[in-house]
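FIELD: query
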Amino acid sequence: MTREQRTALATELRAATHAPERPSVEQLRVGFAAFMGTFAIPAGVRQTGTTLAGRRAVLVEPAGDAASGTILYFHGGSFSLGSPETAMTLTANLVRRAGIRAFSLDYRLAPEHPFPAAIEDCVAAFRSLLDRGVDPDSIVFAGDSAGGGLTVTTCLAARDAGLPMPAAIVAFSPGLDHTRTGASMITKEGVDPFFTREGLGHTAQLYVGGQDPNQPLLAPAVFADLTGFPPILLQVGTNELLLDDSVRLAERARMAEVDVILDITAGVPHVFQAWSESLDEADQALERAALFIRQQV
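FIELD: result
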C-alpha cells in the first residue's frame, strides 16, 4: 500500500486554491471542466460522438477488438456540472481495462433542469439501448459522484417503469442522500478536501429544486427498496463526506438480498480513481471495477 502517495495527495489537495465562497454555476462549470481536464486519458481507446434518446453522448471503445458488453456511464458534477468529457479519464480507463465499449451520456443539468430531469434522461438512454436490441444482461450502469448516484436512481426508476434490470452497477464515490444525514457528513468535515456539508447543501438545492428530499429517488441510501437489483460495486474513500452514502446503501442492498461489494480505500479523496497515473490505489480500484464488470457481463 502506498501510504506516502495518499498522504502527499491529501496535502496537495488541501493546499490547492479554493474557489470563491459562493461561485456562480457558470464559474463552477468552468472550474470543474478545467480541473478534470488535467487528468490524462489513457491510450488504447477511441471516442465517437453519438446520441442516445435525443441526448448527446460519447461512444468510447477499445482500440482493438472489444468483448461483448456495454457500459452506460453517467458523469459526476453535483448534478449541475460536468459532461462526458469531464469524466473521460474514468470512462476510458474502465473501457480499456474491461475491454468493452461505453456510452457516456450528456444528461440535462440543474438548475436549468432540476430533479428528476437527469434520471429521466438516463432511463431514456437505457431504453434506447434496449430498443436497439442490446441485451440488458450485457449492460452495466457506471458513474462517479452524482453519476454514481444516478446508477442507483436510474435502476429504481427503470424498475418502476417495468424495464428489465441491467447486469450490474458500478459507482465511484456516489452521492446517494440529499437529506445529508450520514454520520460522515459530520465526522469527515475538514477531512474531505473537496466538500463541506454547507457547500453540498447549496449544490443540492440547485438539483432538488425545492422538492422534498425524503424520497427514494433523492435519498436512496435512506429510503430505497433495492429488491430485484443487480449486483452492486460501491467504491469510496475514507476522506469523504459521502462515505456513509455508500455504507448505508450497501446495508440496504444486504437487507434486500442483493449482491453488494462495499470497497473502501483508506486515506483517499472523492473519486480517487481519477488519479490513476499517480496513485497506486486508483489503478488497483479500477482493476477491481473492471474485473467486476467482466464477471457480470
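FIELD: remark
The mean pLDDT is 95.
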